[in-house]
Design a protein that fits this description.
Largest sheet: 6 strands, parallel
Order of helices and strands: EEHHHHHEHEHEHEHEE
Number of domains: 2
CATH architecture of the largest domain: 3-Layer(aba) Sandwich
Distance between the termini: 17 Å
Strand order of the largest sheet: 4-3-2-5-6-7
CATH superfamily of the largest domain: HAD superfamily/HAD-like
CATH topology of the largest domain: Rossmann fold
Shape: globular
Low-confidence stretches: none
Structural class: alpha/beta
Radius of gyration: 20 Å
Oligomer: single chain
Number of helices: 9
Mean pLDDT: 91
């Protein structure tokens, strides 16, 4: 696969995580199973803490919003104040979280709660964030060329920072100039990329987005952002039409900056 040269006008790179900087298997085989296996114990341990109460409140608000939008959701209301039976209340939160995960929901409430669970796992050393070997050397090279580097993931900003602060290569958080999650908008909504460009302080056409998801790529392009698709092992296969439409790389090493190679 040939090198891809991004435009000389590019001032910032926006990176997806899952399937782009980090193997999909890390999320599917390590992060998500950790939540499922330790969910009930975590809630029982932290149930009376303010942070946990806030997380449960947000999960409840998500159910209420789903009901207003006539979306499928668990029939019960998750609320610590409804039940005197703590065990039953915890069970309802467990059911809700597992249901959202099974449905592959990207709700902010779910992502925030997961991020708090992962924080304790990273801190204890039970989990280390996986990143492809070509990622950090390439980011350092891009930064040497004056580019700013941002992350945009459906995982919460906190979860993103945890992954890179507790990575297999140590703490590499200093490589990034900022982080975005779904609180700025859905990754398949062009408006999200317009908002990010405003936050970054640069025009959309000066941003290049690296992702493995074509629906995200289309939304970014609709906002005027440059796009490069990343093909990693285990990522969804691209169609011939998609391969013809997008610039594609299999490694960050293949991404060069015009006039700054």
């Amino acid at each position: 696969m040939a090198a891809v040269v991004i435009p000389a006008c590019t001032s910032a790179l926006l990176l997806d995580i899952e399937g782009t900087t980090t193997p999909i298997t890390f999320v599917k085989d390590i992060l998500f199973p950790y939540i499922k296996e330790h969910l009930e114990d975590y809630l029982s341990t932290h149930w009376e803490e303010d942070e946990c109460k806030q997380d449960v409140h947000l999960l409840k608000k998500q159910i209420e919003e789903d009901m207003r939008q006539n979306r499928a959701c668990p029939f019960h209301a998750v609320d610590q104040t409804v039940h005197t039976d703590e065990e039953k209340a915890i069970r309802e939160v467990v059911d809700n979280v597992l249901w959202q995960m099974a449905a592959d929901r990207k709700s902010t409430a779910l992502k925030q709660f997961q991020g708090h669970m992962w924080r304790s796992a990273y801190a204890s050393g039970r989990i280390k964030g996986e990143i492809y070997q070509d990622v950090t050397p390439s980011i350092r090279r891009w930064r040497d060329h004056g580019l700013k580097i941002f992350i945009y993931s459906s995982g919460s900003v906190e979860a993103q920072k945890l992954l890179f602060a507790h990575s297999v290569e140590g703490d590499v958080l200093d490589l990034f100039d900022g982080h975005f999650d779904t609180t700025i908008g859905a990754k398949v909504d062009a408006k999200s990329y317009e908002r990010m460009a405003e936050r970054m302080g640069c025009p959309a056409e000066e941003i290049t987005f690296l992702t493995d998801v074509t629906r995200e790529a289309k939304a970014a392009q609709d906002a005027g952002v440059q796009v490069v698709l990343v093909v990693r092992p285990g990522n969804t296969e691209l169609t011939d039409e998609e391969r013809a439409h997008y610039d594609i790389i299999a490694s960050f090493e293949q991404l060069q900056v015009a006039g700054r190679v």
